[in-house]
Write a structure and sequence with these properties.
Four copies of one chain form a homotetramer.
Chain A (H helix, E strand, L loop, with lengths): L1 E4 L5 H13 L3 E6 L4 E6 L7 H5 L4 E5 L19 E3 L2 E3 L5 E5 L6 H14 L3 E3 L17 H14 L3 E5 L13 E4 L7 H9 L4 E4 L6 H13 L5 E5 L17 H8 L4 E3 L1 H5 L5 H10 L4 E5 L17 H23 L4
């Protein structure tokens, strides 16, 4: 960490700052110049409040040199984290293929889709029971009833279940759920993250729609700080000025997050683009970029889906996509993940 | 609402769509052209799922013509909403001056600041008890103890209290709190919004850092749909590419939100800029734009604040700002709010 | 085009508007409802000034239904445009591999790099002679001397040359240049685009760093309106809030632009990310998404490059990337470009 | 400037880097820590190419501590620049009121508007002769004929003229023009900026629609590096995700740019919002924030304007706005500009 001092700083205040920093076990290096004076800090600055320093009378600016996250930082944990659920793995060379409808609509619907996506190659079933909708007048999901339908589909197909939680109070219904998803609007719902840190289930943490990589990793750090280290990061598109797609898929998130962190990184091309016609090409791009998995909305009857039909593909299109993804992925994964420097 | 049909649509499917829409009491107007065919809908489309329509086989695109929110729409409720708390009002020509520290640190601190901001002209005390922090290693607030300290400060000064809730489970501690704040990261925490719709206390709803005006108003609609119509909208800066300010204050939010909705609109220049040196000029700009109030971080000792000291001003600076704001506001409020067309 | 009229519009003004529109050969369809009245327009609205309509007294809003560009619109020209330069093709199933240094530094340097990238598989040489730099104190390029060095490299290797123009006045030096590049900062330099419409050379048109797809296509329309239809669109990253990459590569640009337009679409992963370590994975992603080519910065000695060394890769790394790109592309191109619907 | 070295850097390379930096008159301070080593640089780093350093083998990251611009930096030139044109001043406590139509349409039109805006209080006439339009099919301006009409209006009213240049080749027509405007799309047209640095006329430099403050100031530095120091900075809204306004007015630009630079800062509320109904409130906000002037589109007949009628106000509305702006400005200017720290 580097602290730029104000031009006319008070020497006594500087001495007091240095004494305080030394008491916290930081090494301090002072560089006095004609136009500016810099104080360099050596030590574990991840627990130091940068805003506090910036607010001091004698400080003009503070620049962090290393990342403020530790548990999820590849710098300190070079090996890939592998998530395992009942024999199925994601990360470290294992491809996760997560598919299913935006909303669970009935037991028949979810069982039918589960069978079809399994046949097409999916190794996880996703489906929304608790649904975040921007309008209070839109369908809000079947909630705990939907959870039961998902578990029915698991019984029928053996596929582990991924589904979204929206509030701590819903946690009691997630006991038999295999993987809990935190949606983009809850990436910084810190109370929820803390609760999820206390349990021992894998978490899919979706990137907030305007969250930086650092913020995403800090939210993962919240979960891991509680002791739950089974976290899957998910790029799902960010908010930009471009109106042609629902969000802008930030494909560079895949190699960058994998460089910064040891956690698996998956991509959700359905929400990233909002257009079913782009799901296949964006899935291939994700595989080529080295993603550890993809999460796709699949519906048996997209035009009549209860939500987000516009971005869902059919089971046949999903099979077509999976076949191509597997081919690209098996060629690219090693190729783009070979070096972690 | 206008539906653009695909070039080679199926006539039978169109008939079935029209029949379905008529069964929902919409009037349908078909315009067939050589290069495209349009179906116009007349009726209350706010409850119609636009994604559902877009997903249909014969539909190429759908454009909404009027807003999807009703309760909070000025079109249907032309008169300004006035929020009243124990005799103090915000909205409809009443200026809210909300001030206090980012974090409550001790009873002494909050009581001292409360007295000072009251003396300077504040009519509400704000202070953070539950603190959303991007790092799990940063100070997380005094939580329920902080709430008690705020109530102590209310007892001493008579100022009504505004403080932030982060999770439904904290609601029990807010019984004596006057105004509940929903922070930028929770603007789309829909489960929380639904709970806040059930109570009868004013809510300050902060704009999500990448939320559109429409999304903000839809979140307000969530609260009002539950029956709680006492909502204050708060512009607190949006996320952009510019790194020089923490966020970018979208000052046009003030006149635009007031045109679209009858709810009061306030501005938080402290979070919008992240720089104490900009708080005064941005407060004056907010007043000049016709805001119904401002919310400012004030700390007796900014350099030693436990959080966000960088953006806090001192009680003296606050008094200076309030004096100027009042002068500008009393001149501008009528001037810029004269027409609601 | 759909025109929403104001609630209490003047009947005489509406009649006059309809008469004016009919005189311009538009068909008009009026739908009068209880809460709103809509006027639908059928005809070629690409030449109609939408702002003019919006400004009229009786008009509340106007929505365009089809795109405002014609020449470059796939709706009217379904077949892929193929660009050919001295036997080398881009588009329609032909892969362009454009490589070379950010800046031309000397004849020796550019000839050496040209030979190396050719050996590695490049079919075009790129190199900057006129350099847009954000600081007036940074190296501004060798300018016309650099152009001559590029032509020397062409003579030695036979590779066609791609290089950037920054101002109309430089055009005289581009006579022997094969492909002229318009940089991101000049995408809306309309006077330059008009001049480039008058010549008969292929143009690489880079997307402005905050340009929408529609704006990019309108800029291409400027060139084609002058008669020059040999245009290659280039996605090079957009400006977002994320600081970890120089720009955010919008990979969805590839399939979307190819759906909207018949022009070839290439990707520049070097400028899109600003990091050499991401060039390979992003090149593979581009190939997987169906791009018609990639443009990569290659330098024989990146650490000592005169500009943008940070994002340049070595000739060996380029060879490695090209080998992988070709493999992915030959599998994916047909796969993702099979349908144009 | 602070250079973070890679973990396992080569000692010989470091020595060579230090020797090179010393040869360029930088003082170097090395801080070696257990987990990282930092090299601090003291000296004028504005001419040092940061990308070059970042590209070096042994360098992991480089952070600039002070700004890369000099001529336009208030740090080195504390006094306000005052622009004077024929007795009319902008900056340093002088308010510029620039008004006129988006496009010059005829001598009659521009003379009539000039008289009206002068009567309403304007001290500059603006009007577009060369028009940047996103569509090649939209009206492109009367060009040199429009310039002549503007000079006619100057003769009639005595108002100095502000009008936009789009290309170097047009410069010959600007001889009698008082102030040359560089539009948002040309803010980084560096060849044009260099030419404008050679002349001795005031330049209004509009912020690029996705340009940072630093980039805007670097573009001003381009002009001043050529010797032309008469530059007026103009905030005109930035591109964000919000669709309700054409751009987002970044009102914090006013105090921030004035803190970073000694140049006058004006605001264009017409382009910033794209809505005539917001012009007045945003003008008042600009005045309250301490702007040195405002630039407003005024048209005698907005619904029939040849371009941008939607954002133009009438002469009467302009008078109403000017009266209020003057009142706010005379109160606020000193208030918000009192300290330059």
């Amino acid at each position: 960490m580097v602290i730029l001092l104000k031009k006319s700083y008070d020497k006594a205040q500087l001495d007091s700052l240095i004494a305080w920093l030394k008491s916290k076990n930081f090494e301090c290096h002072l560089s006095e110049g004609t136009s500016k004076t810099i104080l360099g800090l050596i030590g574990d600055t991840s627990t130091l409040d940068i805003d506090l320093l910036k607010a001091m009378d004698i400080v003009e600016d503070v620049k962090r040199i290393i990342e403020p996250y530790k548990n999820v930082n590849r710098r300190f944990h070079p090996d890939d984290t592998v998530i395992e659920v009942g024999g199925t793995k994601i990360g470290g060379g294992n491809l996760g293929l997560i598919a299913g409808p935006c909303s669970v609509e009935s037991t028949e619907q979810i069982v039918e889709i589960a069978k079809k996506v399994k046949a097409a190659g999916a190794n996880f079933l996703r489906g929304g029971a608790y649904k975040p909708r921007s309008s209070p007048y839109s369908f809000q999901g079947l909630r705990d009833k939907g959870i039961k339908m998902l578990l029915e589909a698991k019984k029928e197909t053996g596929l582990p279940i991924v589904t979204e939680i929206m509030d701590i109070s819903q946690l009691e219904h997630f006991e038999e759920i295999d993987v809990i998803q935190v949606g983009t609007r809850n990436m910084q719902n810190f109370e929820l993250l803390k609760e999820l840190g206390k349990i021992r289930k894998p978490i899919v943490l979706k990137r907030g729609m305007s969250a930086t990589f650092e913020e995403l990793l800090m939210s993962a750090e919240y979960i891991s700080a509680g002791g739950n280290t089974q976290i899957i990061l998910c790029e799902r598109g960010i908010r930009t000025f471009e109106p042609a797609t629902r969000n802008t898929l930030d494909i560079s998130a895949v190699p960058l997050l994998k460089k910064l962190s040891h956690l698996p990184v998956i991509v959700d091309p359905s929400h990233a683009t909002g257009k079913s016609s782009l799901v296949k090409s964006m899935s291939l791009a994700a595989a080529a970029a080295g993603a550890d998995g993809i999460m796709i909305e699949v519906h048996n009857d997209p035009p009549n889906a209860w939500s987000d039909g516009q971005q869902s593909i059919t089971p046949d299109e999903f099979k077509d996509t999976v076949d191509a993804v597997k081919k690209i992925w098996s060629f690219c994964y090693g190729v783009v993940n070979e070096k972690k420097d």
